[in-house]
Design a protein that fits this description.
The chain is of the alpha/beta class and 245 residues long. 34% of the residues lie in helices and 21% in strands.
């Protein structure tokens, strides 16, 4: 499933150190105008940064003959693609759920989040809602959604496919894409661009760290942000001295 292009831990490590604004700027330079998942927020404000490959799950609207006979609730594990996805996802991957931007029913709750957390999954994301928000917000597990909703999933959603291309918050997500998140939100990076975006984003973050020290010390924006030749030369000296993110 997804592209077989290798994405190293070094690349993922660089991406974890880069902000959403930097990542989206680098993608915009490459012609990708909207890769940020607009409107999604972490349930916990203490969410750290993460980066991992996408494992996708797709929902369609529920229907009375498929979902309203309580089939999903009585036969856990039978005809239940959501359970299959939670068991199939691997450590380091990110569950990305296409809930059709519909927060009327929960895409998952505390029990499924705990199972994934214990497996070492990097994060869970939906463009709908999660339930058990109080419990999830206290977990050491990044979970992003539009809202916290108590209503059970079968009321409005049916899980029908995993590891297929999906849309999440109106952004195309392919299995194996690289998902990067922090307290500000989530960005989707096409897998084949991961290394170059990581390298250039890291360099941009490092340069802006240096430029901030100058502006914070009273330097004018002119010649500093963006940097002129003299400021860039200063930056290279600063970087050569061993400064890093």
């Amino acid at each position: 499933m997804g592209e077989t292009i290798d994405v190293s831990e070094e690349t993922l490590g660089k991406l974890r150190k880069c902000g959403q604004g930097t990542l989206t700027t680098q993608l915009f330079k490459r012609g990708y105008r909207q890769q940020f998942l607009v409107g999604l927020a972490p349930l916990s404000k203490d969410t750290g940064s993460f980066a991992g490959e996408a494992f996708t799950l797709r929902f369609i609207p529920s229907r009375e003959d498929k979902d309203w006979d309580l089939g999903d609730l009585r036969k856990r594990g039978e005809d239940n693609v959501q359970w299959e996805a939670v068991e199939a996802i691997q450590a380091g991957q990110v569950l990305v759920i296409d809930s059709r931007n519909d927060p009327r029913a929960a895409s998952a709750g505390n029990m499924l989040m705990t199972r994934m957390m214990r497996k070492g999954v990097a994060a869970a994301i939906t463009d709908g809602a999660f339930r058990d928000g109080t419990e999830i917000s206290g977990m050491a597990f990044p979970a992003y959604c539009r809202a916290n909703t108590a209503s059970t999933r079968p009321a409005y959603h049916r899980a029908v496919a995993m590891q297929q291309p999906i849309g999440c918050a109106d952004v195309a997500v392919y299995p194996g894409d690289i998902i990067v998140g922090d307290a500000d939100g989530v960005t989707v990076i096409p897998r084949h661009l991961a290394k170059e975006v990581a390298d250039d984003s890291y360099e941009q973050e490092l340069r802006e760290k240096f430029l901030f020290t100058k502006v914070d010390a009273g330097a004018s924006l002119f010649g500093t942000y963006p940097p002129d030749a003299a400021t860039l030369a200063e930056f290279e000296t600063w970087k050569a001295a061993g400064n890093t993110l």
